[in-house]
Here is the input.
Amino acid sequence: MATMIIEGERAQAASGDTYEVRNPATGEVVDRVPSGGEADVDRAAKAARKAFPSWSKLAPAERAKILHKAAAHMLAKVDEIAPVLTAEQGKTILESKIEAQRFGENIAWFADLADKIHGEYVLLPDTRTYGLVVRNPIGVTGAIVPWNFPLTLAANKVAPAIAAGNCVVLKPSSTTPLATLKCIEALIEGGLPEGVVNVVLGQSTGNAIVTHPDIRKVALTGSTPTGKKVMAAAAPFLKKVVLELGGSDPCIVLDDADLDEAAKAISVGRFFNCGQACLAIKRLYVQEGAFEPLLERLVERAKKLKPGNGMEKDTRMGPMHTETQRAEVEAQVQDALDKGAKVAFGGGRPEGSEYEKGNFINPTILTDVPDGSRMVTEEVFGPALPVMRIKDLDEGLARANNSPFGLGSSIWTSSMAAAHRAVKELEAGYTWVNALQIAHDELPFGGTKESGFGKEHGLEAFYQYTEQKSVVYGGL
Ligand code: NAD
Here is the structure.
């Protein structure tokens, strides 16, 4: 049985409660884990607070060295960790390998910054004084993670936090704790001191992290409703929050686009991880001249996405993570069909005995989806793509921005002027121009509008795990 990790040790829940983690492809039990609660979060926060003085005072170059060694140790275990992620989450083994690899690379990327914190020297009006702006770590930080990318979304929080000298209480999603435990165990085996990262499990530990007085900052990736609850719960503590929430990324394709490249990127952008991604092309707006040829290319690509158990070699798309999640996507598709949409590809579930026990669904492409339908107004967290016709860029931008979300966005065009306008006018935290929607370590990532605020990735994320202090030196 897997356990929580508190102060470097394997820990059961104080209550003794446990629950089962199940495989979304087979329904089988993968493992049992402790179902922690407030008492366990308190223990973990105390362990993190205890570890903080020595971790934060370590010579920065030494901290960088420890993190690089721990990351290398973890990276050597990618082949061991990936099948665990596939078993608990459902994604294909290739997707799991990419994700586990990204976890270790992210730790290493921020380790490089650990000894490169810069401050400022500031002249003051009085010539006998001068100012400095220094940066200190925050203390104990909390990380709350969803089930769609358990490892990369944990690393997005843990890596900058510990590189900057903080200690962490990490809560994976209840349904995907196992690969995360393996990654943190590997970091500890590789030399990460005990108590620097603690892992608690169980549904109620999220709220316990947000309301624990010793945890000074909380980074959540989750749905928009959860983000609103977390922000409200953090308010009485005036706690810093980073909220990476839902999205409904628009993609605009103009007549002058490279349609082969666009189709490739849109297909990956919608169907990767069985469509369960925050950054995913969820509304496609295509100019009239490109509409039919692009649709044809998308359908050709969708035909190759064979659903199946993520462990099978020929599987190109795993099952949906939960039955509820599949029912939600099916209801959104049905709503569009009821309102007049047409199926260009897919719809329904794959048939055959191998699909009976899992949450399988077909990749689906719909056209003529009206603006008022749920697929347009809500986040579609599964492999279903609505494709809409637009007359021109004006219409594309107006309809793209007509959403409460503002996470990612993209445009395909060979016109510099059109691309420039889209970059300026698309209401989103990220715009890709003629490029695959990949969130790069180097660029700050985060949403606007109801997709949240605060950044992960890049120097910005690192600095957001420090606090600025102004200093005046007098008596010169
Ligand atoms: P969720 O909001 O249900 O849960 C996310 C995490 O928050 C889980 O660990 C959960 O246990 C915890 N949680 C739930 N209620 C809480 C509360 N009141 N207080 C504290 N913690 C609480 O999300 P999910 O269904 O696991 O994930 C899917 C959602 O995440 C989608 O909306 C998706 O768009 C979003 N997401 C966003 C990003 C991004 O970077 N913006 C990335 C991936 C996923």
